[in-house]
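Comment thread on ticket #2218

A.B. wrote:
> Attaching the input chain for the structure job we discussed in standup.
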Amino acid sequence: MATTTLERTIGELVAERPARARVFEGFKIDYCCGGKKPLADACQAKGIDPQVVLNMLRIVDESAPTEERDWSKATITELCDNIESTHHAYLKRDFPRLEFMARKVAGRHGDHHPELVELRDTFLAMKDEMEQHMLKEEQILFPLCRKLDQGQATAGAHCGSVQNPIRVMMQEHDDTGHALEKMRELTNGFTPPEDACNTYRAYFDALAELERDMHRHVHKENSVLFPKAVEAERRLTQR
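C.D. wrote:
> Ran it. Output below, let me know if you need it in another format.
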């Protein structure tokens, strides 16, 4: 069982049981953009004993609530609906608040903590890119995915294979992942300094939540939705 698990990819393991994401987050193992790596390779890259990770995964599996949704069994349409209503809605709601705090904290504390200026600029660039990214998903890719789910073989006629927009979205996910890594680095793991004011602390806490949600968001698309859409198109074109 352990050998079989070690050969499976991080993305597959989280898709099967989303609660496992907490284990990978604890070990700083990327399960969204890096979800295609086998567990053994991911542990080796981090210098972590794979048996320790396996033990933690086993504990989570035994304690996870049974009502947890297994998104690998959801339809393409259900996945698109959930991503829009959960992750896209979260970003649209929190981006204005985060932008306000990014500008305020950098303006008030940037002289003594110059990394806050780079943090602000990194966040604002990521925000702009994600807003365009969500727009493309909601207006182009997700409607295409829903048509494939309905059995429309010509769904992607205007943009070729569904793999074309998916390829673009995955590259943009990688870019977002790099931005999140940079923000984590600039904030020392989202840990505010002792002299931080309440807004400063709330800002770092909000960035940590942003990272957690983005990991789940990207994982759900890269490891679950996109493979389902590619497979649906393959089946339809082989008819």
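A.B. wrote:
> Thanks. Noting for the ticket: Residues 73-237 form one domain.
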